[in-house]
Amino acid sequence: MSEPKLSILLLVCSIIAASTAAQSSSVISGTVQDPSGAVIPNATILLQPAAPNSSPYRAASDSNGTFRFENAPPGPYNLVISASGFKDATIPLAVTAKRPTPLRITLALASQSESVAVRASDTAPQISTETSENQSANSFERNALDRVPVFDQDYITTLSRFLDDNATSTNGVSLVVNGIEANGPGVTPSAIQEVRINQNPYTVFFANPGRARLEITTKPGTPDFHGTVNFLYRNAVFDAANAFAIQKPRESRQYYEGSLSGPLSRDKKTTFLLSLDRDLDSVQTIVDAANQFGPIHENVPAPIHHSFAEGRVFHQLANGDLFWIGSSYENSSYKNQNVGGNVLPEAGYNSVTVENEINVSYRHTFSTNWINQLRFLVGENNQPRTSVTEAPQIIVSGAFTGGGAQADSRRTEYHFDGTDIVTWIHGKHLFNFGIDVPDISRRGADDFSNQLGSYTFASLAAFQAKAASTITIQQGNGHLVFLEKTLAGFIEDSIRVNRKFSVTVGLRYYWQNYFHDDPNNFAPRFSLAYAPSTKSKTVFRGGAGVFYDRTGPRPIADLLHFNGINLLRFIVTDPTFPVTPAEIAATPTSIVTLDPRLHIPYRLQYGFAIERQVTAKSTFSAGYVGSRGISLFRSIDANAPLLPPFTDRPDPALGQNRQMQSDGYQKSNALELTFRGQPSKYFSGQVQYTLSKTYNNTQGITYFPANSYDPAADWARSDNDRRHKFDLLGSSHFTDLFILGAALSLYSGKPVNVTTGADDNGDGVVNDRPLGRARNTLHGPGLINLDLNVSHDFTFKPKSDKQKDVPTLTVSIDSFNILNHPNYVTFVGVVTSPFFGQPVAANPPRRTQLNLEFKF
């Protein structure tokens, strides 16, 4: 085990050993649940002394709905419980020397009229010494999400602005739904209860740190009928023109979505949730390229059709246990994908995704101190991809990509994800331990790509001269089936030492097949929170943790495909155009191998912060976050030519030997400033500014250095490095006429790598830089984006029974990129390109969206 991990592990053990003797008999604990018996996380619990002018004790329910207070002096109290979408509950109780039985509190659903009046500010988090209540997190519950501009009801993309691209693993951002890693939210937008980012960043429950994890909590079934119907419409008539479009694209979108919940039995212990959507998106993409005849400007239809249906049944057992099961079906079709910028329509591909899933959850209460939560899902996925044009692909670096996509493939999987968590409450301790199965999948990977070959030309002049730099062509058996397995175990102890100080320590173990996995993949983590006094409005936080990477299926498929026997890949340097069979026959096959020293990479993240209660409903957090990526994935050509003219490889019987290594390194430092809550009646939401700097010498397992014999020369700014990042997301209710929501993003640019456009060193990778030029030296474009939402509620209140829920129609108009700023995607970094140092693609221009939402 490396020294950083060993130091943290020793610290974890010492804290656990020092804390086990600390016990208290004056512990008030309990569980918060909804009428169906589903637990309610993040509920605010106040233990208010009956004596006047006394400061309340504060806690929040965790992911299992549990809470606790310690060392409350004897006397009368009121326990006040509140959560978004539920009616507040007040329970009088008396604290005595005798330890009370843990409470089970059921919150009633708020009526529709009450729910509409509740905004994010009403449940804004206040300062707390719970280690999981860090104020640098970004959290939006249902009502708050309805009051901010969300393009096409895509809450995941809207809130992903708060993620950190440099913190993600090889497998991408973790999407966690109801405690399980998943491919999608599993429900339609109106059935989402809450979305959180960076909540409890050092917990052992998850593989990735907080800024690389997006957590979704979905709605439960309800004992009374409740529903939402959404209709969204968008048309290019009301939009501005794209920065690179000669004519405004004819785009439109119609989106139908809704959810319904209610009882299935007379005793209302069996309930259901149904969610459906249908999406017809007639989007177009813009081509801005150049060939030997001159500039190419074209609008290309790229329609997307999507359908989704999901149903769940919840049942509360007689002993208070809760069981639910759900089934979902999803179908998506995409036309002319990968087209746009300098990629021509002929080089696009069409794809389809069909997915079926079954979700199961069972919470069992063994006793007042023991709770078990089991969740798992099984599913199947089918993703065929077909090239629009059956022709060799032509890539002229930085000018155009044409011919065919050469991207034909089919990926299938049968997968299982699950977790089982046991919670034990004992004195000052809240223990959680269990197992996590992020993925066990039978995967099929049929690779029919590059059967006609992909040619690369260094420039338009080289293309006119038919002087190709390389061609990659594949032959042989592209069919593959394999089993991917990833497993983890964890244990965590949250210790509430006293009202001023709490600490959480934990350990996670990780294992994955196929990658020489190290038996010492232990990931220790800890966090602490301290307040100078019980009445302090300031809290100091700190934490650190080790987070192991995960490869995902693509690298495994590459290893099994390109073993020199199954699927043969030939990389011909300086071929004739078109290439001859004799040239291919004379070229050794290329393979993919593992470095025998390879092990699973990990990131060490650490940080500290100061949090301050600004007003009764708002907080400010200033924190430092440091990160070190150790033994990161990258690839090299282990058989690259040594000397000019770069024609002779060390092993002449092999072509390129793409060797996957774990020798990369990354260093990141960031200052995060976060404001959240409601400073006044005019604004409610979250504002975050990040000043950061990230350097590395790899961008992941598919990354090749420019020189495989000198990977250290690629040490430079990360491809995702943004020095300045500002985000605002919130709403204002300053008049009864309407509610105004806003999303503002101000980003500095990412760097751009400058290349020659040719394979100068003969390693089969077209990423060579001009002599003396370091990696990522060109500064890319920044981003300025302002979105606005204006909404008004029309309520229909029945005169006969004022106690019934009030049906409400919300009419909203959203304008995205209202400033119509030309937010360029990036610049072209190929020195031989006619577009060198210029953009060829931009994010969408100003767009307007009408949304009608009916709730009952």
Largest beta-sheet details: 22 strands, antiparallel, barrel
Kindly report the average pLDDT value. 89
Number of strands: 45
Q: Label the structural class.
A: mainly beta
CATH class: Mainly Beta
What portion of residues belong to β-strands?
over 45%
Distance between the termini: 57 Å
The CATH homologous superfamily corresponds to: TonB-dependent receptor, beta-barrel domain
The parts where pLDDT drops under 50 for at least 5 residues are 6-25, 111-125, 799-804
- From the alpha carbons, calculate the radius of gyration and give it in angstroms: 28 Å
Percent in helix:
under 10%
What is the molecular shape? globular
CATH topology assignment: Maltoporin, Chain A
Separate helix tally:
7
CATH architecture: Beta Barrel
Description:
With 856 residues, the protein is mainly beta. It has one domain: TonB-dependent receptor, beta-barrel domain (Maltoporin, Chain A), CATH 2.40.170.20. The protein has a 22-stranded antiparallel barrel. A hairpin with a 2-residue loop joins strand 36 and strand 37. The longest helix is centred in the N-terminal third of the chain and has 17 residues, at 3-19. Mean pLDDT is 89; it is low at 6-25, 111-125 and 799-804.
